[in-house]
Amino acid sequence: EGDVFKYYTDGEWKKSASGKSVAIINPTTRTTQYKVQACTQEEVNKVMESAKIAQKQWAKTPLWKRAELLHKAAAILKEHKAPIAECLVVRSGDLISYCAEEGVRILGEGKFLVSDSFPGNERTKYCLSSKIPLGVVLAIPPFNYPVNLAVSKIGPALIAGNSLVLKPPTQGAVACLHMVQCFHLAGFPKGLISCVTGKGSEIGDFLTMHPGVNCISFTGGDTGVAISKKAGMVPLQMELGGKDACIVLEDADLDLVAANIIKGGFSYSGQRCTAVKVVLVMESVADALVEKVNAKVAKLKVGPPEDNCDITPVVSESSANFIEGLAKDAKAKGATFCQEYKREGNLVWPLLLDNVRPDMRIAWEEPFGPIVPVIRINSIEEGIHHCNASNFGLQGCVFTKDINKAILISDAMETGTVQINSAPARGPDHFPFQGLKDSGIGSQGITNSINMMTKIKSTVINLP
Ligand code: G3H
């Protein structure tokens, strides 16, 4: 039992009374790497209770003091790079500090209104409004950014005066626990942050439907749709899947496009919600583009992450099986395989599929793996049509030297963000980030998240 990571509650690291643990499987070796506590529903109840109590006190803590603690946590996180991957930690530390700075600015301002601007009113009412916290925020980050997408919820929640309960993804839970230790070391009040690990079947619905939760911020896949159907009367922030299209016009700089397809489609082995998930290229430049991308795919290093490879095993066997299913379906329906399909365990070799057509699953579904489909189009309208026919609407990108066309295409694409001449991406982290349709609810980015995790409170002074 000694090697089971403890969970965090009431300012302490504890073992679950369940005596059970959840195994975290190493995607490369496919054996158990770590174990975390399998918390019980009773323990979740306790966490919720402390979060509620801690929040009341925290909301009364001066804003500048809250900011001070967040800056401290950011500094500690940056000092503790070793147990967590260095690159993730720097971005996350900066994100926390930015939340503290943005929070003191936007929450330090309120509004003052007078009544006589609305018809029929005299100047007899003064309205003072400011932002108040929602209460207890439940944060559920995904496996692919367990630290960064946790702090993108923790930072805004805490600066705004909320308490926070974190449910880490099982794959990625240990990185989350290390990160929580940094908040522990910073000296946040007891119960203000908790981190409960456990089986989704035991505590998943119990957490999301818990009456003590006042806001849910979730990033992940289909589970988000299920949560939004079950959650009660609480504000939801959801970042779900994407099928980000990359529209390539005839005048595009094809070297730039190829580099961005590699970066956008294959980095992190395609396991990003903002990955390039379908290339829609004008037929006249398709051959040239495919050739350039293939030359770059050939240079990608495939293997374990420990060897600093570009393409590494995907998160789970079921994920690799799903990717394989998409590849087989495309093969059966006549897609051109630019590379040979190859898989060993969870490791899937990078693959560009040319001549993909709308009847293939890969044209619509997100592989979350290193497979990028190319659909050849004969008009811009055809590209926009394919993009908008998707049930997703996260981001998209368009490559052209004609800025007027780029803007018109951006306006026509039904996605939360369109990048002109670069691959989709969430950052910088203060930019608004949102998905239309099945890609999400609400908007993220530091400022939007702080606002989303608050509510307006008004006091009206009635003059005699
Ligand atoms: O996987 C979803 C992330 O929000 C994508 O973030 O664009 O920084 O990779 P990223």
TrEMBL record:
It comes from the Eukaryota. InterPro entries: Ald_DH/histidinol_DH, Ald_DH_C, Ald_DH_CS_CYS, Ald_DH_CS_GLU, Ald_DH_N, Aldehyde_DH_dom, ALDH-related_metabolic_enz. One of its GO terms (cellular component) is cytoplasm. Residues 13-458 form the Aldehyde dehydrogenase domain. Pfam families: Aldedh. Keywords: Cytoplasm, NADP, Oxidoreductase. One of its GO terms (molecular function) is glyceraldehyde-3-phosphate dehydrogenase (NADP+) (non-phosphorylating) activity. It catalyses: D-glyceraldehyde 3-phosphate + NADP(+) + H2O = (2R)-3-phosphoglycerate + NADPH + 2 H(+). Its EC number is 1.2.1.9. The active site is at residue 239. It is found in: Cytoplasm. Belongs to the aldehyde dehydrogenase family. This is NADP-dependent glyceraldehyde-3-phosphate dehydrogenase.
